[in-house]
Amino acid sequence: MDAAALADFLRRRRAELSPGDVGLSEGRRRRTPGLRREEVAQLAAMSTDYYTRLEQRRGPQPSEQMLASLARALRLSRDERDYLYRVAGHGIPDRSSLGTHVAPALLRVLDRLDDSPALVISNLGESLAQNRMADALFGDRTALAGWERSDVYRWFVHPTTERLLYPENDRDRQSRALVANLRAALGAMGQRSRAGELVRELRERSAEFGELWDRHEVARRFEDHKVLVHPEVGAIEFDCQVLFTEDQSQALLVLTAARSNGQHDSQAQERLRLLSVLGTQAFSDDPA
Questions:
Q1: Which InterPro entries match (predicted)?
Q2: What is the full DSSP assignment across the chain?
Q3: Same domain, yes or no, for 235 and 202?
Q4: pLDDT 10s digits, 237-268
């Protein structure tokens, strides 16, 4: 580990970001440009003392998990992320696989979205980043580990709980869409990739998945309109907008109140406002 290079790199990247770049309020007048140390620590979910020691060359070697959090907090490109791993004494993450690194361009857009549920997902359906409204609608899926982070995995392995978010008459369509999206990801990534691992895992665990997989349906799109059912708020009609990275390995999904004849649906808007008030209370109160 090159502690001096790591410290200098962190300081310089921190100085180049403004609070608005990461979705924070500018607050009172700042004496120096860039983010404060405590702000980076907050974004990376670590203590300010730990982060400060890294910048002062006094910290221990950060784990790969810590580095992934720092790369996201500092909005690093893949090249910058790779450099961060090198100077911290770790191997470079495999770019052919889908890790937890979120495309900075998508994060910049996500940071500016507050009134509508929005989340960044990998092309295996893994939740990589969510805003406050997405947490309220889905629960914090970024906190899940392993394949549990993938919506296609949860859909077929935990159908009795995962499918409650969708109306019963839309579940067959969603099953086919998830499988078709996964086949498109496999075509892009290859049999030896994480997509191939996920397919093999699902074929072993779900007969339903195996039957749908054998249809060879391929698609890489999301429904323009959907209904999602929140346990407290009820059914909410959404319009869905999607922004892909250039290589289509990640997508930003934004759900807005459904529109009809150019106007927002009043019921959808009202339920979206109620969702904002409730926040994650329904999920945090659940003993499970």
A1: Cro/C1-type_HTH, Lambda_DNA-bd_dom_sf, MLTR_LBD
A2: --HHHHHHHHHHHHHH--GGGGT----SPPSSSS--HHHHHHHTTS-HHHHHHHHTT-SPPPPHHHHHHHHHHTT--HHHHHHHHHHTT-PPPPTTS--SPPPHHHHHHHHT--SS-EEEEETT-BEEEE-HHHHHHH--GGG--GGGGBHHHHHHHSHHHHGGGS-GGGHHHHHHHHHHHHHHHHHHH-TTSHHHHHHHHHHHH-HHHHHHHTT--------SEEEEEETTTEEEEEEEEEEE-TTSSEEEEEEEE-EETTEE-HHHHHHHHHHHHHTTHHHHT---
A3: yes
A4: 999 999 988 877 889 999 998 876 655 678 88
